[in-house]
Amino acid sequence: MDFPEWIDYEILGNSLLVWASGFALIVGAWIVLGIVRRVLRTRLTGVGERRGFKPFRIAGLTVAQTKGWFLLLAAVAIGAQLWTFEPSAQRLLTIVLTIGLLLQIGLWVTTALDVSLRLHRELQMQAHPEAIAAIDVLGFMIRLLVWTVVILVILDNLEIEITALIAGLGIGGVAVALATQNILGDLFASLSIVLDKPFVVGDFLSIGEFLGSVEKVGIKTTRVRSLSGEQLIFSNNDLLNSRIRNYGRMFERRIVFNLGVTYETPAEKLRHIPAIIRDAIEAHEKARFDRAHFHKYGDFALVFEAVYFVLSPEYNQYMDIQQDVNLTIFERFAEEGVEFAYPTQTIHFGGQADLRGSRTGN
C-alpha cells in the first residue's frame, strides 16, 4: 500500500505518520490503563469486602486514587517512545513525567496510610479509645513527612539546590515559628494530650461551665459534644490550661445528702433514723453504704447527713438509685410517724396585762 508523499512530511524531526502513530498509541494506552484501573479497583475492593481481608481493601481504595492525569502521562510516556526529540525537549518531557510519577506516588502512599489508619481506628474505637487521638496525630505527621520527601525529590529533579534551601528554611523557620506560635502551641498541646492522655475520645468532661463528651482530638482543636447537642470546639492549648474534670475516669461516685426532721421527733425515733437510711441504701447492689449520722441542730430541723457510693460512673444510674433511696426513706418515715422539717416561724404575742405592766414599769 502506497502512502501519500505528504505523510512523510517531517515536523520537529518526526514524520506525520510517526506523529499520528504516537498519538494513536497514546489514546489506546490511556483507554487500556483506565480499564485496568477500573477492573483492579473493583476486584480488589470486592474481594476485600467479601472476605474481610484488610490488605485487599486498602489496595483497592489506593488504586481508586490513581488519577486520570497520571494515566494520561503514562500513556504519553508509552506513545513518546515512537518519537524523536532534541535533548532539551527530551529532558523536559522526562522532568514532567517524573514529577507526575512522584505526585501520584505521594497520593498512593497517603491514601494507603489514611485507609489503614481509618480501619485501625474503627477497631480501636471500642477496645482502646485512648489510642484514637494518637492515631490521628500519627497520621498527620506521616502525611507531612511523605509530602515533604516528595517535594524535596521534585525540587532535586528541577536542579534546585536543596541544601541551600533547607538552610534558608532553617533561618526563615524562626520567623515563621514566631508568627505561628499559637498554631504551634496547639500542635504541641495535641502531642501532650496524645502522650499524657488526660482524656480520651468518649470521656465526659467538665470544662468550666461546659459539659460534654469528647468526640475528636485534632491537631489544633478538640471537639466536645455538649449535653444540649451542639458541638463545642476548644483550642488544645487553652484546653490544657483549663481546669478539667474528667468523669470518664470516675470508677465510682461519692454521694452526700442531708435530710431534716422536726424538733418534735422523739429521741427513740431519732436513734432509729440512721438505720432506716442504711437499709434504703444497702437495698441496691450498685450502692455501697458509708455512714449516716445525726449531723447538727439546724435553724428549723434536726439534720441528718448520709454518705454512700454508687459503684458506677453513669449519672443516670446514680439518679435512679438516689430516687429509690428517697422514696424508700419517705415511705419508712410515714410508717414510723417521723415528720420532715420545713422552714417555719412561730410568733408569740404578749397579753394586754403584760403590755400595761411594761408601760407602768417604764
Q: Based on CA inertia axes, which overall geometry fits?
A: elongated
Overall pLDDT level: 81
Helix-strand makeup class: alpha+beta
Largest beta-sheet details: 5 strands, antiparallel
Number of strands: 10
Low-confidence stretches: 353-362
Topology:
Layout (H helix, E strand, L loop, with lengths): L9 E2 L2 E2 H36 L2 H11 L3 H12 L7 H41 L3 H27 L4 H18 L1 H16 L7 E4 L2 E8 L3 E6 L4 E5 H5 L3 E3 L6 E9 L5 H16 L4 E11 L4 E9 L4 H22 L15 H10 L1
Antiparallel strand pairs: 1-2, 3-4, 3-7, 4-5, 5-6, 8-10, 9-10
Helix pairs in contact: 1-2, 1-3, 2-4, 3-4, 4-5, 5-7, 9-10
Give the tags.
SH3 type barrels, five-stranded antiparallel sheet, three-stranded antiparallel sheet, disordered C terminus, Alpha-Beta Plaits, elongated, 10 strands, 11 helices, alpha+beta, 16% strand, 362 residues
Could you walk me through the main structural features you see in this protein, from its secondary elements to its overall organization?
- This protein has 362 residues and is of the alpha+beta class.
- It folds into three domains: 5-128 and 141-154, no CATH class; 182-248, SH3 type barrels; 253-336, Alpha-Beta Plaits (2-Layer Sandwich), CATH 3.30.70.100.
- Helices cover 59% and strands 16% of the residues.
- It is built from eleven helices and ten strands.
- The protein has helices at 16-51, 54-64, 68-79, 87-127, 131-157, 162-179, 181-196, 236-240, 267-282, 315-336, 352-361, and strands at residues 10-11, 14-15, 204-207, 210-217, 221-226, 231-235, 244-246, 253-261, 287-297, 302-310.
- Strands 6-5-4-3-7 form a five-stranded antiparallel β-sheet. Strands 8-10-9 form a three-stranded antiparallel β-sheet.
- A hairpin with a 4-residue loop joins strand 5 (221-226) and strand 6.
- The longest helix is centred in the N-terminal third of the chain and has 41 residues, at 87-127.
- The radius of gyration is 39 Å and the shape is elongated.
- Mean pLDDT is 81; it is low at 353-362.
